Amino acid sequence: MQPTQHTTLLIIGGGPGGYVAAIRAGQLGIPTVLIEGQSLGGTCLNVGCIPSKALIHVAEQFHATRRYSNNGSPLGIKTQAPTLDIGQSVQWKNGIVDRLTTGVGALLKKNGVKVIHGWANILDGKAVEVGGQRIECEHLLLATGSHTVDLPILPIGGAIISSTEALQPTAIPKRLTVVGAGYIGLELGIAYRKLGAEVTVVEARDRILPTYDKDLTLPVAESLKALGITLYLEHSVEGFQASSKTLSMRDRMGQSQTLETDQVLVAVGRRPRTGGFNLESLALAMNGAAIRVDSRCHTSMRNVWAIGDLTGEPMLAHRAMAQGEMVAEIIAGKQREFSPTAIAAVCFTDPEIVVVGKTPVEAQEAGLDYISASFPFSANGRAMTLEAKTGFVRVVARHDNHLIVGWQAVGAGVSELSTAFAQSLEMGACLEDIAGTIHAHPTLGEAVQEAALRALGHALHL
Amino acid sequence: MGTHVIKMPDIGEGIAQVELVEWFVKVGDMVSEDQVVADVMTDKATVDIPSPVAGRVLALGGQPGEVMAVGSELIRIEVEGAGNLRESAQAGPAAQPAAAEPAVAAVKAAPQARVEVAVVAAPPIKAAPAHRSAPVAREANERPLASPAVRKRAWDSGIELRFVIGSGPAGRVLHDDLDAYLARDTETSVAPASGYAKRNDEQKIPVIGLRRKIAQRMQDAKRRAAHFSYVEEVDVTALEELRTQLNQKWGDSRGKLTLLPFLLRAMVVALRDFPQINVRYDDEAQVITRFGAAHIGVAAQSEGGLMVPVVRHAETLNLWGAANEIARLANAVRTGKATREELTGSTITLTSLGALGGIVSTPVVNLPEVAIIGVNRIVERPVVVKGQIVIRKMMNLSSSFDHRVVDGMDAAQFIQAMRGLLEQPATLFVE
């Protein structure tokens, strides 16, 4: 039995929430221990945000080259049909992941955080056991993130894969069926299609990306069609026969149907990771499947904190990071509160979708008297030069004082507009503020200014 | 195009004025036929005013809280066809529809001149668009608007941004606003370490509608009646046993009984011997009217405030009949559906705060009645019975009477009669 260790802050989970909390706590001089069971960086760096974006980039480059080779592009570039060495692609992706996770480790070390690799087991609200070592702390921060939701009828293994396996391909299957048309399913489905697979998407609800409004998802639906992705809406999967490689499903009317497919990617969502580290012994108040926290990320137990996906929707790395930073500052004695005006949500489909703040529907539900206006990229010069004329930027503002309450956009590369959107909301910008800011020409950002102008009734280029 | 004027209708017998409670439309809105445009209030009932015509609202005749005479102009609507306003009078608003909004301001400023058509055509008073006026007042629960840097500085200085007036666009709180707030309240700036923000905010809430009604009636009752209160404790152990048994046996089929139906029954039975307490006293005519019927008001909390729906002819109701009627009335009050009839005509009132009943209360008599029975909470207490200390369920009755017409002796005997009935619950039902 090793002697008990003591620390001020003990963090379980080294994902974006946990490691940012640890870095900030280190900066503030708080003795901090971080326990990570797998690899620093969590889902985001290892099997989520970063590797999926790497794979999407590979897919886009490959797809573009293929277009040049079969005269599908008007740009005048001619080339031979490209080939794909997926093993090398994955290696390149792993290189990025390694660089980033090593970087996180270095940052933690630089800030004096003690990292323990091992599986934490909670003993009580002030003590955790890891590898036979008992560690006592004043503050316990839970940052264990989330895991993919499994379907009992489609157990992961063999031809049935989750997003984790899909980001580590050894070969691109001839036929891939994606179960779930949420953002994860569509991002990967589109990437696999561009890498050459025949992709089918099955969704139980009546439309793709059900959390976004129809105007925003329409350009994505059109893109799926253009890419040749087959879509089955209002179909429920019933099972997969591995021997015959057939996926059976049923439509809304109960009509059965089978699909032949080489791989099935299950992407039906994520759930807070609350099991496997004796969390239940704390009997914390829950909010559905998530840990309930107040506006300071404090749980129902004194000096036990929880951040990120573990606390439920929206499950976004940037939310977890902001919460982690805040909790470290609270523990350092500062007065803080997690009260962002908005948290941007980005969907890296083709085209991309970005949503920050209230949509028109949400403004209506909130009882706001609002104005909404959109500006299409088809009227934006830079979009034309990028062959990216689909999509639009939309603004939602209060009618009485023109305070902007929401931004949405769909189009190629619009994820980068989230910066401008979030900034304008957090700064409390009014339509006149955005309309009166000179936006560089020629950029996609001009559509942001034009949307604000249009809401004020005088768009210049429409 | 013509103009249709809706006048304040006569909605109660002999009522000369009613209070405008709420507008559901504003100037420029389109209204359809039968659409409710306003709520007005008489005595205690709120009445919807529907529009008999379809058209566009030209002008509103008053603001919420204003007491308006029956027959005065309530709303002016532009309609297809002739309307009901004579031609010469309508020229003003029809010629200058743009002036409609400022005209409301004029109407507000000069309520006496409301009926004059000329006022409607008054020149604009306020020309600046509303959204650029600063500072902007926030709703009580509205999130303060401030940049992240301002928010952080406020946290660090222990300032609650909710209490800082924002002078920026849309009411945004700027660094300058924080400076001004800190300068005004230096104590906050030197002692943020205490962790508790000092509050200097005030909120003015106009006393209108039901609250004004309650205020008037309570003041009236306190001024006119000669209140005295009388408190007696009642051993309700047997009553509670009976109630539990009845609920076990019939709770599912007939509904659960609270204590209220038993108290109603005790009042009904006790009042038979005290007709001088079940009365309404008209102090202006100097007449006391005794009632054979027991119309028992049961005080109930609504969203807007206290209301007293009336259980009519309580003497005819058995326990479950009374329970159902109380539940129905309470629901009507809560949902704002209670009619004028259901809210008037009581001869005596029962008030109970349930678990919040406290030890003693001094209820205010619901004029023109002369008695109000208040119920305090039930507590288990050690009580001496025949030389032994035993645990009994005890409950106080705190009642008030109008001493102008109820003598102390009568009041005491009446309460003792109720106590006897409640302590020996069988006697409640022996005729």
UniProtKB/TrEMBL annotation, chain A:
One of its GO terms (molecular function) is dihydrolipoyl dehydrogenase (NADH) activity. Residues 9-324 form the FAD/NAD(P)-binding domain. Its EC number is 1.8.1.4. It comes from the Bacteria. PROSITE patterns: PYRIDINE_REDOX_1. One of its GO terms (biological process) is 2-oxoglutarate metabolic process. SUPFAM superfamilies: FAD/NAD(P)-binding domain (SSF51905), FAD/NAD-linked reductases, dimerisation (C-terminal) domain (SSF55424). It comes from Pseudomonas fragi. This is Dihydrolipoyl dehydrogenase. Residues 343-452 form the Pyridine nucleotide-disulphide oxidoreductase dimerisation domain. GO terms for cellular component: cytoplasm. Disulfide bonds join C44-C49. The active site is at H441.
From TrEMBL, chain B:
Residues 3-78 form the Lipoyl-binding domain. Residues 145-182 form the Peripheral subunit-binding (PSBD) domain. It is an enzyme of class 2 (transferase). Its EC number is 2.3.1.-. It comes from the Bacteria. Keywords: Acyltransferase, Lipoyl, Transferase. Its cofactor is (R)-lipoate. One of its GO terms (cellular component) is cytoplasm. The keyword Kinase does not apply. Pfam families: 2-oxoacid_dh (PF00198), Biotin_lipoyl (PF00364), E3_binding (PF02817). GO terms for molecular function: acetyltransferase activity; lipoic acid binding. Gene3D superfamilies: 2.40.50.100, Chloramphenicol acetyltransferase-like domain, E3-binding domain. Coiled coil: none annotated. The keyword Acyltransferase applies. Forms a 24-polypeptide structural core with octahedral symmetry. Belongs to the 2-oxoacid dehydrogenase family. PANTHER family: DIHYDROLIPOAMIDE ACETYLTRANSFERASE COMPONENT OF PYRUVATE DEHYDROGENASE COMPLEX, LIPOAMIDE ACYLTRANSFERASE COMPONENT OF BRANCHED-CHAIN ALPHA-KETO ACID DEHYDROGENASE COMPLEX, MITOCHONDRIAL. This is Dihydrolipoamide acetyltransferase component of pyruvate dehydrogenase complex. It comes from Pseudomonas fragi.
